[in-house]
Amino acid sequence: MSSQNTTTRYWRKRSSQYEIGAFMAWVLILAFVSWTFQVMTQDTIWAFVTDAPTQFMDIGSRMMPPAWNSLSSLWRPLWETINIATLGTLLGLVLAVPIAFLAASNTTPSVAVVRPMALFLIVASRSINSLIWALLLVAILGPGVLAGILAIALRSIGFIGKLLYEAIEEIDADQVEAIEATGASRAQTMAWGVVPQVAPTLAGISVFRWDINIRESTVLGLVGAGGIGVKLEAALGTLAWPKVTMLLILVLVTVVFSEWISARVRKALI
Asked: Residue 215: which CATH number?
């Protein structure tokens, strides 16, 4: 009788080559994380880090109780902050709407020339933070509310313009074609075929951006762009911790109130 050699095969979920490759990938990832951590912390003074809980408790104890007697002098800068956010949002809205129509592929007069320029303006606005805009405008216009309003507006153009032009591109084309079939001009088609479809979206975007701008306008004063941030910088500079607490409470209440208004308006629109 001739004997047959039988080979037993075992099933494995992954091959040896795959497991080796996965192991090497994890080694490289851990090495990269370790290297980036060293780069990020190379200038860190660890004595300050270890002492942070003590400093936090010390400053926290000096921040209480809040300086309620300073509340009367904070209403005006708080009103300035709300005005910066509101006027900046309105100005950004006025500038963003035509840019959005120029950027949308179904409403732009020129896909090859005008649309890329409009998209560039939207990207440029979104790429620069409002705090950077404020720094530039304070250097050009000087400190004050005007620099804050323009900084908020320039930042809002990209946000509103991007969301709006995407909404314009998603409109129902049948309604537009029906209006064009009646012999309507391009302006009439825009007014009666496009605008009614995107108006609720535009309203929701505007309120949402105003809510964001309320938060951003509170810190613009740190660079001299007006609002309650000016008072906050002065309080921090003089180590007036009870007044800092009062300012933070005001900012928190304002942000919560704006969030409530924004949520109610968006709910009504939807």
From this structure: 1.10.3720.10
**Structural domain tally of the chain?**
1
| Number of C-beta neighbours around residue 215 at 10 A | 14
Q: What backbone phi and psi angles, to 5 degrees, belong to 228?
A: -70, -15
Tens digit of pLDDT for each residue in 91-118?
Answer: 999 999 999 999 988 888 888 889 999 9
In a domain, 13, yes or no: no
Rounded mean pLDDT of the chain? 84
Query: Rounded to an integer, what distance in angstroms lies between the CA atom of residue 143 and that of residue 240?
Result: 23
Q: pTM of the full predicted structure?
A: 0.76
Answer whether 217's CB lies under 8 Å from 155's CB. no
Look at residue 89 and tell me if it is in a domain: yes
CA distances from 209 to 61, 83, 155, 159, 181 (A): 36, 14, 10, 8, 37
Q: Which residue has the higher pLDDT, 67 or 159?
A: 159
- 78: in domain: yes
CB 228 within 8 A of CB 221: yes
- Examine residue 39 and state whether it is found in any structural domain, yes or no: no
| pLDDT value of position 174 | 80
**Which residues constitute the domain of residue 195?**
69-269
